[in-house]
């Protein structure tokens, strides 16, 4: 058990809808990262937050947004969903923002299916 | 640009065979981290090892060993006496060292199937 908690485990929704994925980092970790894993794109970095502030942005679509709250949990919001958004979404956490002394620990992921 | 290449898409071995998973990386940074993660059929990503570019010593942990060669930009992973439970997708990843973020750049993964 990595200590990173993601909910829900599975999500099935229709095109055009909006969903929210939730992540609680490991105790003591200040950084949260979101990754998308799809068959055609592999594991893609979406966005990182450190102690409530955005730190790095990857291949995140404008329809997607994220935030990290004062209690350090994070939410990834996906809107105007398309079939191609179906993927496994991972959250990871680490102690620092640059993590010299800590690897990323991943949650079990949320499997999103858009029908 | 940073890039990780895992040329082996799929490997199938019989239990007790040794198997090596290849990883080649590209980076302009002189200092960086390299990682291996395991993704079993259940889907979670499990951290296996982190190595920084200062340390080229090979590492052994039980049946797992890692060979880091800066000269060839490779960080290969060997499983000795493979077991069915080793069946998974294995990802190699690269991260900055000392930058503003330690986001990981992943390779495309190698699916290892260990047959009984």
Walk me through this protein's architecture.
The complex is a heterodimer of chains A (115) and B (116). In chain A, strands 2, 4, 5, 6, 9, 10 and 11 form a 7-stranded mixed beta sheet that branches. A 4-stranded antiparallel beta sheet of chain A has the order 1-3-8-7, with no helix packed on it. Chain A has no helices and 11 strands. Chain A is globular, with a radius of gyration of 13 Å. Chain A has 115 residues and is mainly beta. The termini of chain A are far apart. With 116 residues, chain B is mostly beta strands. Chain B is 0% helix and 53% strand. Chain B contains no helices and 12 strands. In chain B, strands 2, 5, 6, 10, 11 and 12 form a 6-stranded mixed beta sheet that branches. Chain B is globular. Chain B starts with a strand and ends with a strand. The model of chain B has no long low-confidence stretch (mean pLDDT 91). The interface between A and B is medium-sized, with 27 and 26 residues.
Please write out the topology.
The complex is a heterodimer of chains A (about 120) and B (about 120).
Chain A: E1 5-7, E2 10-13, E3 19-24, E4 31-38, E5 42-50, E6 53-57, E7 64-68, E8 74-78, E9 87-94, E10 105-106, E11 110-114
Parallel strand pairs in A: 2-11
Antiparallel strand pairs in A: 1-3, 3-8, 4-5, 4-9, 5-6, 7-8, 9-10, 9-11
Chain B: E1 3-5, E2 10-14, E3 19-21, E4 24-26, E5 32-39, E6 46-52, E7 59-61, E8 64-69, E9 74-79, E10 88-96, E11 104-106, E12 110-115
Parallel strand pairs in B: 2-12
Antiparallel strand pairs in B: 1-4, 3-9, 5-6, 5-10, 7-8, 8-9, 10-11, 10-12
């Amino acid at each position: 058990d990595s200590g990173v908690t993601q909910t829900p485990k599975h999500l099935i929704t229709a095109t055009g809808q909006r969903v929210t994925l939730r992540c609680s980092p490991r105790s003591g970790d200040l950084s949260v990262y979101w990754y998308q894993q799809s068959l055609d794109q592999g594991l893609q970095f979406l966005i990182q937050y450190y102690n409530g502030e955005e730190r790095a942005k990857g291949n995140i679509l404008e329809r997607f947004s994220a935030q990290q709250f004062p209690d350090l949990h994070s939410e990834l919001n996906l809107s105007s969903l398309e079939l191609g958004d179906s993927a496994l979404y991972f959250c990871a956490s680490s102690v620092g923002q640059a993590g010299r002394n800590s690897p990323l620990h991943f949650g079990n992921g949320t499997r999103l299916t858009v029908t | 640009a940073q890039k990780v290449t895992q040329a082996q898409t799929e490997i199938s071995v019989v239990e007790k065979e040794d198997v090596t998973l290849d990883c080649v990386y590209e980076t302009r940074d002189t200092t960086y981290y390299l990682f291996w993660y395991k993704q079993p059929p259940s889907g979670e990503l499990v951290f296996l090892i982190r190595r920084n570019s200062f340390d080229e010593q090979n590492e052994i942990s039980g049946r797992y060993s890692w060979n880091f060669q800066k000269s060839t930009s490779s960080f290969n992973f060997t499983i000795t006496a493979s077991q069915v439970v080793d069946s998974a997708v294995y990802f190699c990843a690269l991260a900055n060292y000392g930058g503003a973020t330690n986001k990981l750049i992943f390779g495309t993964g190698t699916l290892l199937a260990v047959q009984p």
